[in-house]
Amino acid sequence: MKALEIPITDLHGIKKLIPHREPMIMVDSLLEFSDGEATIGFTIAKDNLFVNNDEFSETGLIEHMAQAAALYNGFKNYVKEQSAKEGFIASIKKLNIQKLPKVDQVITTDVSIIHEIMHMSTVKLSTFSNGIEIANAQMNTVLKEEE
Asked: What is the domain count for the chain?
């Protein structure tokens, strides 16, 4: 298997790192990665499930942020030669959406791991469009344990 190198901008490579599949994929690039941090990208397509009146909805933004955290974990597991694990939003501690992005805009989300213990993480997420922060959140996520 060919090693994945940052940046990863092809959907085939991204699909190796997350458990999500079409039409529920809300990330399309891993732009930067280091221990505890990553930058994730996504281009808003007109046919996206969460687009209404040419805007990406609040629900879409939240799902994108959660998948950004999942992509961080997926790449971390990939480096350890482990498979992508399903995860869940356990709670959203803080959420602030200033602006909804439009169709064809590229959004980027900075992922910052605040705390990790076993299968649970507290993650700070900041989403940008054209260099301007449009949303931020703090989430607790839980990875599904192997059965």
From this structure: 1
84-132 confidence digits (pLDDT tens): 889 899 999 999 999 999 999 999 999 999 999 988 999 999 999 999 9
| Among 102, 11, 21, 15, CA closest to 54 | 102
Given a contact cutoff of 8 angstroms between Cβ atoms, the answer to whether 108 and 91 are in contact is no
Quote the pTM value. Answer: 0.95
Provide the domain limits for residue 91. Answer: 11-143
Is residue 63 classed exposed, middle or buried when 0-12, 13-18 and 19+ CB atoms within 10 A define those classes? Answer: buried
CATH of the domain at 71: 3.10.129.10
Asked whether the CA dihedral 10, 13, 17, 21 is positive or negative, the reply is positive
The helix (run of H) or strand (run of E) holding residue 69 is helix 58-79
* 2 in a structural domain: no
In DSSP terms, 121 is beta-bridged to 116, 141
Average pLDDT, the chain: 94
